[in-house]
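Fig. S4 source data, part A: sequence.
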Amino acid sequence: MVELDYTIKSDRSFDEAVDAVVAAAPEYGFGVQHVHDLQAALAKQGLQREPLKLIGLCNARHAHAVLNRDIRVALMLPCPVAVYEQDGEVYVSTMHASMMSEMFPEAHIDDVAAEVEDALVAMVDAGG
């Protein structure tokens, strides 16, 4: 089984890391669907935590290809990149897209998942 995530510690501030990932997305053919501020969402419920944002990324061509092979892959879209602080350090993380291939082996999406994974890793690295 493939490791679930690719995570790096960033030398940037939290906001700089988020901005760097968002700025890198178009370079790899991805659009930013939404930046979800989980810290703020939880604070509305009276729950406190360190900063955490989820960046939902999508490449329409890749999404279309995998959805045509197995619509259930939609459960893993858009591709998330998490930027968070933990114990005063900033981290940037994504799920290995190759996990989609393991979760939906009958969809035969190894080729697309590998391309997506390469792009996501590069975008995470840009946030570092």
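Fig. S4 source data, part B ends here. Helices lie at 14-24, 38-43, 60-69, 98-103, 110-127.
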